[in-house]
Amino acid sequence: MGTSPVQTQILEKSSLSFSTPLFLLNSLSLSLSPLQKAATWSPSFSLSLSLFNLRIYLREILGTATRSQPRSGRSWSFSGMDYSQRRKPYFLGKFLVACVLIVFCIITLKQSSNHHSSSTSVFSRHESGVTHVLVTGGAGYIGSHAALRLLKESYRVTIVDNLSRGNMGAVKVLQEQFPEPGRLQFIFADLGDSKAVNQIFSENAFDAVMHFAAVAYVGESTLEPLRYYHNITANTLVVLEAMAANDVKTLIYSSTCATYGEPKKMPITEATPQHPINPYGKAKKMAEDIILDFSKKSDMAVMILRYFNVIGSDPDGRLGEAPRPELREHGRISGACFDAASGIISGLKVKGRDYQTADGTCVRDYIDVTDLVDAHVKALAKAQPKKVGIYNVGTGKGRSVNEFVEACKKATGVNIKVEYLARRPGDYAEVYSDPSKINRELNWTAQYTDLEKSLQIAWTWQKEHRNDWIVDLVLQGHLYEQYGLGLGAALMFLSASFEALLTVLPDVLKCALLLYSDYLDWIYPQSDCTKALLQLKFICCFSNIYGLILAFMGGVDVDEPPSKRVKVSSVELGGLSNTSSPLEPACPLGGIMARHLPSQGNEDMVGSKGVIKKVEFVRIITKALYSLGYERSGAILEEESGIHMHSAAVHLFRKQVLDGNWDASVATLQKIGLLDDNILKSASFLIFERKFLELVEKDRVMDAINTLRYEITPLSINKKRVHELSSYIISPSQRGLLGFGDLTSKATNSRLELLEELQNLFPPTVMIPERRLEHLVEQALNVQRDACYLHNAFDSSLSLYIDHQCGKDQIPSQTAQVLQAHDNEVWFVQFSNNGRFLASSSYDKTAIVWEVHEDGEVLLKHKLIGHDRPVVMVAWSPDDKQLLTCGLEENVRRWDVNTGNCLRIYGKSGLGLLSCGWFPDGEHFFTGVTDKTICMWDLDGKELECWKGQRTTKTSDMAVTKDGKRIIILCRETAILLLDKEAKLEQLIEEDQIITSFSLSKDDKYLLVNLINQEIHLWSILDDPELIIKYKGHKRSRFLVSSCFGGFEQAFIASGSEDSQVYIWHRNTGDLIWALPGHSGAVNCVSWNPTNLHMLASASDDHTIRIWGLNRVNLKRKEAYSNGRSHHGNGNSKW
C-alpha cells in the first residue's frame, strides 16, 4: 500500500518549526488534508500547502533568513530561535499591500468554493439501491464502529464530528478500509451550529441519520450539567429541524439506560418508568421526549436504542476505544483498567464500595460494541414510517465492578492494583436489561457475552494500535501535546485567542487578518466555528501568496543553511531573580541548571510516567511559594506559566472575605462554579456567621439581629449554632466567647481562619488546600520510609535530594563499649523510658544505674546495694525518677535515681516477691508473690488489692498496659494471663512449650514470648490473642533468655542466646539480620534504647554488659570501676 497524504505529512513534520503559535498553524495546515473531500476548497488552495512556501513565509515572519548575529534588545525564543519584537515601518504601504492580497485571497477562496459547489457529488444525490446514512459522532468510539459496519454492508456514509471527543485516527482507518469514491466522506462541524448543520443537510442527500454525537460521562455531567443539556438536548433539536427541513425520514437515536435512573425492580424493561438522576440521563430523556413529540406530527421512522455499558472493540482489530487522556477520570471502566494495565496510571480507582449489592460495588450490564452496532444496523433495516421503536440493548446479565476488574486482570495478565474511593455523585447501585423485546422484534441477540473474551479483544487492540492513532494524527496528536485540545476546540481556541495570535504575526498579515475578520463578521455573524476555520484557511492561503511574492522578489534567501539560524545565548536563557523583570536575563546558568520535566509527549502532563497534571503541579508550587512568604516569586511563576493559582472569581472572593465585604462575597460564591447547593449553603452560613459576630462585637445589635433573622436562619442549617448565636445577643456575658478581644488586631486573623474553613469546605479544584505541596512531599517521604526494608533512622535523616534506603549498617552491630562493674552474672538490663539511663541487675545481689551521655558513652552513675539475694529484675517509673528492684523470692526496693538512695522496702511476711512493675500513674506498682497472687501497692507500702490465680514461681516477667487496665503475667508454665482488672476479664495466651520470658511492645498491641524450644513467638493482643510470626535461630537449653522490641517503630526483634551471641530479626518477616558475637558467656537479656535507635545493650553471664552501636563514636574502652564508682546501700555509702 502506498504512503497516504497524512503519512507523507508525518514524515515531513520533523522539518517544521515547533514554536507554539507557528506550530499550531503548521499542524492545522498539514493535518486538514484528510478533510479535503468535505471542505469547499479547490486542490490548488487546499490547506495542505507547500512546505516550501509556508516555511519561506514563516522565516520572513521571524526575520531570521539573512541574520547571523543575535538581535539586541527585548526578544524571546521559540525552539532555539531568536525572534525580535521589532516595530516595522511604512505601515501605510503594508496596509495597501494587505488590502490587495485580501481581495485576491477572497476571490480565490470564493472561486474554490463555487468550483466545489458546482461540481456534482455522489453524496449530494439519491441513488437507487444505495442508502446514504449520516453518522453524527462517527469519529467516536461507538460511532466509528457503526460506520465500519455500515460501510461493510455497502451503505454510503457521511460522518459529521467536531472531534471534541472523537478521534481522527478512526476516520483514517475507515478511509483506508474503504478508499473507493462515493463510499465515505468526513465533515468537520459542530451540531450546535445550526447554520452549518442546515448547509450539510442541504448539500447532501441523506436517507437516514444515526445520531451518536454526545458527551457521555455520568461523573462529568454532574460537574458540567449545562454543557450536557446543550450538547445532547439542544443539538438533537438542531438535527431534527434539519431533517424536517430537508425531508430526511429515518432516525436511529442512540440513547442510554441512564434515563431509567435507579429502578426499584430488575431487570429493566422498556416499560420501566424513566426517572434519571444525573444530568446525562436527564439530557437524553429530554432528547427522547422531543423526538417522540416531533414524530407524532410527522411520518418519520424512529428507532430509539437505550443501551447499557459498552465494552470491547472490533473483533478484526481495525478499531478500538482511544479516549482522550484528560477524560480518564470520567471514562469507561474498561479504559481505566487498560490504562492501569499499561502503566499509564498507577492503579484502578473504584468509586463506591457501599452499594446494596453482593460485593458492595455497583452492578452493570456490559454490552460488546460489536453487538451494539449490530442492533443499530438491524434497527435501521426494520425502521418503518410513522412508527417509533424503543429498545433496550443489553445482555440481560448484571456484572459487578469487582467481577469486571477480575475479568480484566485475566484478560490483560496484569495484577491491577485497586483502590476504593467514595461513590460518584449521580451514580446508581444496580442496572441491567431485559432484552426480550429487541430479541423478539428485531431478531437481535447479543453474541459477545463472554466478558473476559471481549476484554481480551479490546486489550489486543490497545496494545497494537492505540499509540499508532496518537502518533499518526498530526492534527490531534500535536494539538493535544501543545494545548490538550481537539480540532474543534482548537478552532474555537483560535477564535477566542485572536488577539494573542496577532502578537506573533507580521504587520502585513496582522492588518490583513483583522480586515478579513471584519469581513467574516459581516458574512457569518453567528458562526464562530465557521469563521475560525475560514480565518485559518485565509492565513494559509495568504502565506502561500506572500511567500511566493517574497521569493520572486529575492527578499528571502531560500538556500540559507540551517547553521545561520541564530541560537540564543545561555545568558538569554537564564532564569529570574527576585530583582529582574520577566524579560531581563538574570542567572547566567538558569537555563542549564535543570533539565525540563519530561512530558511523555503530552504537554498537559509532566513526569516520567505522565501522571502529573501540569496545571495542578504549577498551582501547588505557586501555593507553596506564597505560603513560604515568597510573594514575588509566586506572582512571577503565575505570570510566566500563564497558570493562575485561582480563578478570577475565587481571587475576588478571597479578597472580599478578607476585607469583610460579606454580602458581595456571598454573591461571588454563585459565580465560582463546581459548588453544589449544600456547599453553597454551608459556605454562606459561615460567611454570615462571621458577619454576625463582627457586628455583635461592634455593638451594632440591630444589624446583627437582621443578619441572624434574614440571612442566617433562612439557610435552615445548623439550628443548634443559630441558637448559640442568639444567646450572644440576649446575654452580653456570652460575648466574651467570641474570642475577639481587641477587634482591630484579631479581626484579620478571624477572617483568615474563616478562609481556611471555607477552603476545607470547597472542592480542591476551586481552592487549593493549604500546605498541599508539603503534604505531598511528606507523603512521598513516608512511602519511601515504609518501603525501606531495614529502616532504622529518625525522620530528620530523610532527604529530598535522594531516595531513602537504609542498609544493615543502620542496625547496631558493632561493640561500642563493654561495661564491667558487676562481679557476677548479669541477669537483667533495661533502658529508661527517656533513653538517658540504663539499669542492670546481677547475681552479685546489686543493681547498677548507668548514665547515657549525648556522645553515646555509657558511664556508671550509682551502684545499688542492699538486697540479700540475687536481683532478678528492675523496673523504671514512668517519669524515670525512680527505680524498682526485685530480689529473687525476696523483697522489692524503690530507689531515687538522682541520688541513688533507697526510698522504701516492700515485702510480705513469710512470702517472697518474684517480680514487679509500675502502673502508668507512677503512684502504684504491682508485684508477683510466691503464693501465686498479684498484689497492688501504693508508694507508702500499703497493699491495696490482690488477685489470686495459678502461677509458677520461677519467672520475673510482668507487664501492665499504658492505660493501666490490663495486667500481663505468667499464670502457668505454658500460658500467659491477660487480666483486665476493670472489666474483670481474663484472656489466655496458650503455648505448647514452656514459656521462659515475655515482653510487651511500646504500643501495647503485641507480646513477644520466649519459649524453651528455642523459638520466640509474636502475639497480637489487641483483641483476641493471635499468633503472628515465629523467630528462630538463637540457642536456649538451660537458662532464662529474654528478648525485646527495638528500632524505628519497634521494627526489629533482639534476643539473647546461650551461644554467647545477640540475635536480631526483622519483625514483620522473621528474617534473621544479625548474629552478633562478642560475649564469652550466655546472653541473658537485651534492651534497645527507645530514643537512640542505634544503641542496644546486652547482659551476659560473662559479668559484662555490651553496648552495641554503629561504630560512629570510637569510644576508648574504660573499666567501669575507674569512673568514680559510688555504691549505695539503704541510703548509706559503703566501700
From TrEMBL:
Gene Ontology biological-process entries: galactose metabolic process
Matching InterPro entries, A to Z? CTLH_C (IPR006595), LisH (IPR006594), NAD(P)-bd_dom (IPR016040), NAD(P)-bd_dom_sf (IPR036291), UDP_G4E (IPR005886), WD40/YVTN_repeat-like_dom_sf (IPR015943), WD40_repeat_CS (IPR019775), WD40_repeat_dom_sf (IPR036322)
Per the record's keyword annotation, is tRNA-binding included, yes or no? no
Q: Which GO terms describe its cellular component?
A: cytoplasm
An example molecular function term from Gene Ontology annotations: UDP-glucose 4-epimerase activity
What highest taxon heads this organism's lineage? Eukaryota
Known Gene3D superfamilies for this protein? NAD(P)-binding Rossmann-like Domain, UDP-galactose 4-epimerase, domain 1, YVTN repeat-like/Quinoprotein amine dehydrogenase
Name the keywords, alphabetized. Answer: Cytoplasm, Membrane, Repeat, Transmembrane, Transmembrane helix, WD repeat
First and last residues of every WD repeat: 819-860, 864-905, 918-940, 1076-1118
Q: Where are the transmembrane segments?
A: 91-109
* Pfam family, any one: GDP_Man_Dehyd
**Residue stretches making up the CTLH domain:** 646-703
Keyword match Transmembrane helix: yes
Q: Where does it live in the cell?
A: Cytoplasm
Please classify the protein's predominant subcellular localization into one broad category.
cytoplasm
Q: Quaternary state and partners of this protein?
A: Interacts with RANBPM.
Q: Tell me which PANTHER family the record gives.
A: WD REPEAT PROTEIN 26-RELATED (PTHR22838), WD REPEAT-CONTAINING PROTEIN 26 (PTHR22838:SF0)
What the record says about family reads:
Belongs to the NAD(P)-dependent epimerase/dehydratase family.
Q: What name does the UniProt record give this protein?
A: CTLH domain-containing protein
